[in-house]
Amino acid sequence: MEPVRKGLVVREPWIDLLLSGEKTWEMRGQRPSYRGWIGLIRKGSGLVSGIAHLIDVGYPLSPDQMIKTFEKHRIPERMIQGGEVAKWTTPWKLSDIRALREPVPYRHPNGAITLFSLAQDVSAKVSAQLREARADQPGAIVHRVPPLSASASVEAPWSPPGNARSRAGQAVLLGETVVTAGNLNNGHIYLRPFLHRFPIDLVGGRDQHPQVMSHVEADGMPPTSTDICPRHRFFRDRSWTRAFLTYSDAEPGDVVQVHELAPYRYKVSIGRMGRA
Fold first, then answer.
1. Beta strand 265-271 pairing with 255-262
2. CATH for 172-271, among 2.40.330.10, 3.90.550.10, 3.40.50.620, 3.30.360.20?
3. For residues 170 and 222, what is the distance between their CA atoms, to the nearest angstrom?
4. What is the pLDDT confidence band of residue 77, given thresholds at 50, 70 and 90?
5. Is residue 238 a contact partner of residue 187, using CB atoms and an 8 Å limit?
6. Where is the ASCH domain (predicted)?
7. pLDDT mean over 252-259
8. What is the third-level CATH fold of 6-132?
């Protein structure tokens, strides 16, 4: 197997969608000649978090083509029609997407914008994990995508977000996050572990035109209308979150659950850990 010599920085929530297997096209503005293994780097983390095999690069897509291939890149129709991704219409087609068991630190080269060469020691560490990974080893591979076919059929157009069960009226658990002292002091709860399960346009939705907001509720409290902070990955209405943590008598170690009741409608609750 060839070594992983190249790196690519990917923003959230796109890198989470790649590593979870929900997306296999990374939309960019260039058509590189390179084909082979690349290291996937979460923007701002300083870590190579996963790897993928860049097997092909398509030609720039029209808005209609992007809407029809939503299942490949996961960019909502709203963002496509609004021109927010007009610079990123070229599909980099990936296969064998895997998360590293132990992310590898790296130093970003000065001036590097898209694909860049990883330092030799970083390449060696990433490649070693790739060689050692086995599908039957827990945690070794988060998702492995079959190679894409050039003749693959076009996916159906985008439909409104929301788990099928939530659309049928049943609450769906999106994820859990452990309460920390920092959460209590600053009035927030981290959504990063399951951020990819929220609609993409809800991240930074307050700053869009028109705004994209969600309804968030909890037992015994008035609900709030909020989006998700794109920088810190928590519900932006921290005053409501602080009131929720206080009302719930939350302590470090408790677990916050977030359920989806319907598209853009959520309920949060507290689970006690080690206390009555």
1. antiparallel
2. 2.40.330.10
3. 21
4. confident
5. yes
6. 10-88
7. 91
8. 2.30.130
Note whether 85 and 14 are within 8 A (CB): no
Q: How many residues does the chain have?
A: 276
Helix, strand or coil for residue 120? helix
Please state, in angstroms and rounded to a whole number, the distance separating the CA atoms of residues 90 and 62: 10
Checking DSSP bridges between strand 116-117 and strand 47-57, what pairing results, if any? unpaired
SS3 159: coil
Token couple for 179: 């309460």
| pLDDT tens figures, 153-163 | 333 333 344 55
Q: Is the dihedral of CA 210, 177, 258, 193 positive or negative?
A: positive
Q: Parallel, antiparallel, or unpaired: how do β-strands 6-10 and 36-42 relate?
A: parallel
Cis peptide before 263 (omega within 30 of 0): no
| Geometric angle at alpha carbon 28, from 26 and 29, rounded to 5° | 165
User: Looking at residues 137-163, what average pLDDT do you find?
Assistant: 38
Long-range contacts of 240-244 (CB under 8 A, 24+ apart): 240/216, 241/187, 241/188, 241/189, 242/187, 244/218, 244/268
CA separation for the pair 63, 65 (Å, rounded): 5
AA letter at 57? V
Work out the pLDDT band at 237, boundaries 50, 70, 90: very high
% residues pLDDT > 70 (the chain): 84
Q: Are 7 and 38 in contact (CB under 8 A)?
A: yes
